[in-house]
Amino acid sequence: MHSLLPHNTFGIDVSAARFVEYASVPELKGLIAQGSITTPFLHIGGGSNLLFTADYDGLVLHSRIGGIELTDETADKVTLRVGAGVVWDDFVRHCVEQGYYGVENLSLIPGEVGAAAVQNIGAYGVEVKDVITAVETVNIRGKERVYLREECEYAYRHSLFKRAENKDTFISYVSFRLGKHPVYRLEYGAVRQELEHYPEVSLPVVRQAIIDIRRRKLPDPAEWGNAGSFFMNPVVPRAQWEALQAEYPDMPHYDLGDGRVKIPAGWLIERSGWKGRSLGPAAVYDKQALVLINLGGAKGSDIVALSDAVRAAVRQKFDIDIRPEVNII
Ligand code: EPU
Fold first, then answer.
1. Tell me: the pLDDT tens digits for 66-98?
2. Would you put residue 213 in left (φ > 0), alpha (ψ -120 to 50) or beta?
3. Structural domain of residue 49, as residue ranges?
4. Residues 173 and 82 in one domain
5. N or C: which end of the chain has fewer CB within 10 A?
6. pLDDT in tens, 50-65
7. Is the residue at 81 inside a domain?
8. Relative to the CA of 218, which ligand 1 atom is closest?
9. Taking CB atoms and a 6 Å cutoff, what residues make up the pocket around ligand 1?
């Protein structure tokens, strides 16, 4: 048995029957050829978006493919090819140091590059799909395939790689197209406010501002086990939103422009009375209700029990079903 405690930021004490890491595509293909990739298997990244509810009776796979390689450069843009096992924020720091624009708003998001491309991480007006050009993969039969961005079915916290039938496709490298000239994405009020503390805007300043906002709002997994936003922000038809809006005029919202409106789950949870409340060893974080935390020694089932209670409360009050964003295993 192999402990998964260092591989999940929720801090759930479970084990896997087998655990295998690989550091290159040839090494992965070698493992496949010699029959070492047995089913069932689960490919993980940094474990920052996972909730284990039991020991995993199978093989847990993890990529340690590293490297940040410049594969194309023009006067205005660069393309970087990055190993799936690179820590996401190490990549962001590298880009900021080199003066490459496009990922700074995604500073301090936990996890690794491969998983970032699977779940289309996003924050402060930027999603990783905005800068991805191609995703290289190897499947369980050792077949390689490159997916262009357009083929990846990117949407809010979604991609082709999240679908159940693609669980046997492993990301090896992700290519990003980034700018060499200043273009900032500052439409988020919280970001603009934070930047008022600085004499001028620059790439390192934007990174620092994002880091400071996140540190204030989101719990450090070293202190409280968590997986960031536990729920996705729900999207409702405009008519439903109008009815809610009449009753709750202060409800924040984001009009998607296609007849649908996105509502912050954090606000719904707060208004349902769950912000800061606990159920056994699990709690709703008191500074951001979208985040569930492990108060210490929680089992996956304790977190799920809290999640169910929060969902039921939101459903009862608003008739909206908020769905977990975290992968529950
Ligand atoms: N809000 C509340 N109460 C709360 C939390 C939020 O009323 O407890 C309200 C805020 O006042 C604001 C609105 O909800 O009006 C939105 O809040 P915030 O800007 O904090 O963002 P979010 O929608 O709650 C999303 C992402 C985060 C990302 C932030 C910033 C999802 C599921 N979450 O949260 O992503 O960092 O925007 O862009 O889309 C993650 O995925 O793990 C994550 C942390």
1. 999 999 999 999 999 999 999 999 999 999 999
2. alpha
3. 2-63
4. yes
5. N
6. 999 999 999 999 999 9
7. yes
8. 44
9. 123-124, 228-229, 232-233, 252, 264, 266-267, 270, 275, 288-290, 325
